[in-house]
């Protein structure tokens, strides 16, 4: 993300529509963080989302530690895998919810685990979705959140 775009997003009185940033063909853009350890899935999902008029992946992380290093003020929604190689994505969900209570948080899981799904919602996820739902459904869930 460019410094200019960060400044515009951090300055509430600037009208991004007038500046031409933050919009594509009249659509307000939702800035997305992807935290997913499977690189091929993460990159394919990012490529798909970036083709959508209203979505832009501005940061990607392959681990909990990388996800924790992303400043939450630069994003509108976080898409987080529960099972990461260095810890639980639910830890990041909890941290992001505390830092930005209104941040949209979508949790992805590759396993059918009702207990993990309930825990994800308990710690702050807005929605939990199975990766097998596919990229179109994930994009639609991002818009709902």
Question: Summary?
Answer:
The chain is built from 7 helices and 9 strands. The protein has 145 residues and is of the alpha/beta class. The longest helix has 13 residues, at 39-51.
Write up what this structure looks like.
By secondary structure, the chain is α/β, with parallel strands linked by helices. The chain has a single domain (30-144), classed as Rossmann fold (3-Layer(aba) Sandwich). 42% of the residues lie in helices and 25% in strands. It has helices at 3-10, 16-19, 39-51, 64-68, 89-99, 114-123, 135-144; strands at residues 23-24, 27-28, 30-35, 55-61, 77-81, 83-84, 87-88, 104-109, 127-130. Strands 4-3-5-8-9 form a 5-stranded parallel β-sheet, sandwiched between helices. Strands 1-2 form a two-stranded antiparallel ribbon. Strands 6-7 form a two-stranded antiparallel sheet. The longest helix is centred in the N-terminal third of the chain and has 13 residues, at 39-51. The radius of gyration is 15 Å and the shape is globular.
Task: Report how far apart the termini are.
Answer: 22 Å
Strand content: 15-25%
Shape: globular
Mean pLDDT across every amino acid position: 85
Count of helical regions: 7
**Could you name the CATH topology?**
Rossmann fold
The largest sheet has its strands arranged as 4-3-5-8-9
The percentage helix is 40-55%
The CATH architecture: 3-Layer(aba) Sandwich
Structural class: alpha/beta
Number of strands: 9
**CATH level-1 class:** Alpha Beta
Tally of discrete structural domains: 1
CA-based gyration radius: 15 Å
Query: Low-confidence runs (pLDDT<50, min 5 residues)?
Result: 1-21
Q: Strand-and-helix sequence, N→C?
A: HHEEEHEHEEEHEHEH
- Main beta sheet: 5 strands, parallel
**CATH superfamily placement:** Response regulator
